Amino acid sequence: MARALLAEAGEAAERLEAGADPEALHDLRVALRRLRTVLRAFRPWLGGVRRRDARRVAKLARATGAARDAEVQLGWLAAQRERLSRGRLPGLAWMVARLEARRPAAGGGYGREIARERRLARKLRRRLASRRTRRAGGETLGVALAAALRAERGALDERLGAIRGAADVEAVHQARIAAKRLRYLLEPLRGTPGLDATEAVDRLKRAQDLLGELHDAHVLGRELALALEDASVEQARRLAAAALGEAQGGPRAALRHGPRAGLLALVRLARARRDARFEELEAERARDAGALGAGVEVLAGALERRGRGASRSGAPRARPRAWRERRRTGGS
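^ thats the sequence. predicted structure below, dont judge the formating
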């Protein structure tokens, strides 16, 4: 599993370096997050892998976060153009330019991150091939995965319960991370006879999408607030220059073409988006009403029984279909 995810990350890094694929950055980040989940969940059985390896994978994923956030925010801003009046468009253009300046140039702009990915991949491949893997307590993969699923399900329940409102930034962020970790562990079971996790994965994907949009709205809200502060300072300087006769057109001209009005309109649109996504999340939680937790527990119990039965009988253990076929799962 870890080697397959390393290969996916390496392939995405090559596409990112070439600069021709707009999805390469996203695919690299997804592969890294999945790899970290596997390293965390199965570290007791990966004797050659160290705790800090998972932290390095996470650090590399975070290093590309600002660029990915800028891409997402630019996409949302582009969709707002038709919703803004002509007088608000200067604020939109100002914000777009601000975010564009933050986005690296295609390919070469990610040279440092690509080099770090390759160094880390070399180290992990050596450690995963070191034959220092071990079966802690004689447990099978089914037993180990069942324990990991229960732990991640408990973490998700706790973090979802901590969300108190649409503006609860940190709780939403932590719940989103927990949903991803649980989903990444369940995805390889899709299509496995007697252990099909398709329904649970679909439920998690819906919740994760809503949590992700809430998180994006929070990030954009912070960006707009900072932009509004900077625009206000810039406008105050123009007003002062006009009042002192150092700029043409006077104070009215200094106010007429500034970005503040457009930025304020974007703040209102971003808040409406955030509140709508939170209402959808609450409706999804009401519809779920414990079904996800019950489904994960059924899968964990089946994994445990199958794993313990195979361990006692010495019979070959069936591997989840997705791991056997080494197919890409897609999604974020």
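The two ends are 17 Å apart (CA to CA).
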